[in-house]
């Protein structure tokens, strides 16, 4: 009976690739997994059967990890949990084996592997009659480029480089480039994005045009945004300044701003709405804000459950004895994330974007582990425009808030920044964009706009949207020249080593893969 | 009156007549001897007792009431003639070549024993049995000679009457071993070294335990009843602040938060524990039907109540063994069936931890808590329960029902045929099955249970879990035995085939009691998983004995497992053992002092394939659950309809997955002095495991996961085991015996990566409570597995640890996670077992105890409960404190301080028993023994937590082991 030893899965949810991938729908479902890889942490939801192992599953969720890396080490957020070496992240004092940085590193590269597998199998098992498959492949390439860009931004040009042509198994991937700052990964992401917006040599796999996709599905504008951000940060990523890239940034920002998007304003309000138009972007029904949100990672309390994502962002920002989770459409508060006075003090009194909860909270942070030190941030709420609840009825922690990854206001601010970097002054058109943002916020624009103002305005407009660390690095203010509470493990903040501009390649991967080089200083 | 009694005396084993048996009338000089055909005739008074005795057989006493008395005498197996069960067969103890230790029913631990493994705890050198806690029928971690694996299972293979258990946990049941009633067990045989275990090949790396159950024998019918009643009490409780202390400390430390305190003084630990009374009844009937068919049937009923309120296990067992023989004993059949029906009540073990955290100034129930079922609840400003706050321990118990029902059946039929034309050749066929069904019965969270915020808001919830297992077995072997008198040799050779199929199905899901606005009740959608694997094996053994002095055993097993790809599927596991009966040599023949001396050398290779995944070697795609979908919104039409899509995930895999291989070298000595009045064994061993199945980080991007179970690394166990059994005193009406064993084991990881890398840190493990994702242990090269991995605490001049101050161990001028270092091991270095028996006339007295030395425990109860800031959380709610806070003065959590890694060496007096034997009741027709015992009598340790015996080394929310007082009776008639 030795033939009994040849088994195939008898589990109804498990099968081999050849059996599963026999229809266009099946490819859509595997593509959905790449999207879901940004939204949930495993195949069970909210926890169980995780994508990544060896971590607390909730922590290993993509956006939670990205928030930890992009927000906690900045003036916008402080976390107070005694979770291993998490406090070090808020203190910009991490080592080469920090577990929370490591989690995001593996999550980002995991997403790349998922996309590679999709493209590999689509090449192998795709059929000509699967008419949507080329667009699906373009979406997979977009999601891969997005994760590669995140990896490049946080970990540099020396991250492992794998594509659909890399074998699965015991191969040791090579780094994208020998130096932590260099052109290799930048060039790859650029060429991929150009190809899927229809500007490469091979135009067979192209994203859908603006207005032709579902909410939460990538279109050309999403890829233009990544291209623009790539170009805007090129001097950081490549290690040298080249104005030609700012010009390219302008090109793609212009494509975004002229694609038909518009800011959410009072005009979008209807009778009975209880929140401000700015807040519409961060509510349970923010799928309706699709005139401003260019690309979102979608969530839903019934279908997409996670301990990361917006559940984390909202629940972790509710704590203390005065805040009521129900006000934010939640069953619980986790009491972890607050903001610092460095952010709060950037706002004028009439700025309606300053969404703090201050009762029982003190602005001054004296102890990192006390939630009541620092203002609570109530920017994201699992409530609808009219004040109703999401699909959880306020009775669980699963939210409906879609993560606004890219939105038009960001592109407006980038347009003004490129003007300043290329021409030294903001153009009339860009100033008009800024005016729109200011009008919505209820603030007034200064007579002269400079880069420092842009950096501050980006904080005011985009805080807690995972742009901050990249912005501070681009403006040269992340390690030195600008300090905020807890930076450098000092209550009022202090300068830290320049090595922190790049995060370390986790020690575990340096060990597992001798081809990789550690980033300098770690 | 005077009468003539006659009859035949036979050998109980083969039914052959026994000549020369002495038949005497008790208390007189009258007697006779059986004839060559085993017959006798004797004249006696009615009611006098006949004593049948014969050298090498157990004497029997029978009251003369009939004129015909036929007697079957059983062989008196002592010492080296004892028959020992080995893999696929039996052997005499004197012919053993491997390291095998047997514990018979007579030597089992006594007292309140609900689970089989407790019968031999402390009895076998090198076997560590750690109960998971004090819950009734609790499972245990069994380690033989330390673990040989890191990620794969370290559990020994357990075989009950020839049916190997599959080794997996049984959901809905605390202990998979509970399938056997401890009262039905005849022997435990522990196979330790590879020369003994290698016949089980790929599952034998962690040792093998063979359990045999009692069988019927002898003539007539015998009825045994064993029953007891026991009282379990809380042996110890955790040192936390009393209500008054709490008020004092909070007022001092957090004057702003005193308003959160209540008016009551509640001892929460007292509220959740109880004194529990349990009973156990067993009835067994055994005998012989029609002179041909020995049988034994038993039923058992055990009601074990735990000291945590409401926890219990009610177990009914039934077993039957029938061993008929046919064709002049040429065909022996062994039919065995065991059924088990268990009703578990798990109570809510969350109450153990909650009782420690809950503010002692709060009342248990109150009118204002009506929305929460009347139980005190921490709430937020708007009156909703605060999901982060400690849960009311009483509410945890009272507002949840967590019961399960488990039915299991293990049965097998074994046919042993001695060929008519060639009696030296035997064929043995064994067909067996192990079926199990386990389900919630019921599992519910009541409406108003504030500690489960989701369920509270949705009127409660319920769960349905169901597990099914169907394992099937077929073994067949041929054995040829031959004596070659010409060269003073005998040998036997055996070869066989084994096929096993393991099949499991799991269904689980949970639902709310009230729908949401979409009419949806689902909490966790129903999830069905199904798994199977096959194991196909060929095995053989050769035994050769020369002059009863020199022994050779060679075994070989070829295992094929469906868990590996075709290229790696088959594993070959050889072993060879040599033994030398030194005592039989002429130069020792004259020695009166030395009665036994045997030397054994063993070498063998065993494997491990219990890797947790049945399809780890090929790529699979897995569908997601409805709660892990991706949702698009249809904004093309402007309707914003939700478009959810079930995802399909490609899973990571390692196509090169293969066996883990352990090579064992063993030198053993059996010794005996003074006619074996002092006897024992000494074993020295080295075990090397290579191709460790280890979950390691894979190079990022190289696979579809970040960590994989793969074959990398190696580890080593070395040590020795010494056991001594001595009869210290022996007289006509008294005896005193002492048994002691000591085992020393050193575990070291010798390799963890494919490429040698001195900088490689290792694999962090050992998750703790407190924070999220904190881990305090590591597998690191050069260190024992599961060593602690913590910061080096710096202490002040007053001897108290300085909060947050740790040594910059790597000296880089910075203090961060690079300064974590290996500190102490969690497994014991030395284990001792001690037991003694004293008999005087009808009285017997016994004690058994154990010690583990050189083991450390991370006191998670203190690290998560012993810092002042824990008293109040952001002004939301209060927590009680572990009194350890007075030793440290810590304000904030210091989870990774080595302060909490504490020496947990201990000596535990497991059991003291006093019994009285009344053997001559009802004219000797009834035997009775009454006894009383105490279990978990006392523990001597420096460890500051509640109990130093913690599996895995992290002391965290353990169900406390009770102290149990028992009164029992055994009756035979």
Question: Can you give a write-up of this model?
Answer:
The complex is a heterodimer of chains A (522) and B (973). Chain A is mainly alpha-helical and 522 residues long. Chain A has one domain (20-286, 291-300, 404-512): Serine Threonine Protein Phosphatase 5, Tetratricopeptide repeat. Chain A has helices spanning 17-20, 24-36, 62-70, 86-90, 99-125, 133-155, 184-196, 220-232, 234-238, 243-257, 277-280, 309-315, 341-344, 408-423, 428-441, 451-462, 468-474, 507-512, and strands at 14-15, 78-79, 160-161, 174-175, 293-297, 337-338, 356-357, 376-377, 403-407. In chain A, the strands form four sheets. A two-stranded antiparallel sheet of chain A has the order 2-6. Chain B is mainly beta and 973 residues long. Among the domains of chain B are: 2-73, Immunoglobulin-like (Sandwich); 619-652, no CATH class. Chain B has nine helices and 56 strands. Chains A and B meet through strand 1, helix 2, helix 5, strand 3 and helix 18 of A and helix 6, strand 27, strand 31, strand 32 and strand 33 of B. Strand 1 of chain A pairs antiparallel with strand 31 (621-623) of chain B.
List the helices and strands and how they pair.
The complex is a heterodimer of chains A (522) and B (973).
Chain A (H helix, E strand, L loop, with lengths): L13 E2 L1 H4 L3 H13 L25 H9 L7 E2 L6 H5 L8 H27 L7 H23 L4 E2 L12 E2 L8 H13 L23 H13 L1 H5 L4 H15 L19 H4 L12 E5 L11 H7 L21 E2 L2 H4 L11 E2 L18 E2 L25 E5 H16 L4 H14 L9 H12 L5 H7 L32 H6 L10
Antiparallel strand pairs in A: 2-6, 3-4, 5-9, 7-8
Chain B lengths: L1 E10 L10 E4 L5 E3 L5 E7 L3 E5 L6 E4 L7 E3 L9 E4 L2 E4 L7 E5 L22 E5 L8 E5 L12 E4 L2 E2 L20 E7 L2 H4 L10 E6 L7 E14 L8 H11 L14 H5 L3 E14 L3 E13 L6 E11 L2 E2 L4 E15 L4 H8 L35 H6 L1 E19 L6 E21 L7 H5 L3 E24 L4 E24 L9 E25 L3 E12 L8 E12 L4 H4 L4 E15 L12 E3 L6 E5 L6 E5 L2 E3 L9 E14 L4 E13 L2 E5 L9 E5 L2 E17 L3 E18 L11 E5 L7 E5 L7 E4 L2 E3 L5 E6 L14 E2 L7 E11 L2 E11 L2 E4 H6 L6 E2 L3 E2 L6 H4 L12 E3 L2 E16 L4 E16 L12 E2 L6 E11 L1
Parallel strand pairs in B: 1-7, 13-16, 49-55
Antiparallel strand pairs in B: 1-4, 2-3, 2-5, 5-6, 8-9, 10-15, 11-12, 13-14, 15-16, 17-18, 17-56, 18-19, 19-20, 20-22, 21-22, 22-23, 23-24, 24-25, 25-26, 26-27, 27-28, 28-29, 29-30, 30-35, 31-34, 32-33, 35-36, 36-39, 37-38, 39-40, 40-47, 41-42, 42-43, 43-46, 44-45, 47-48, 48-53, 49-52, 50-51, 53-54, ...
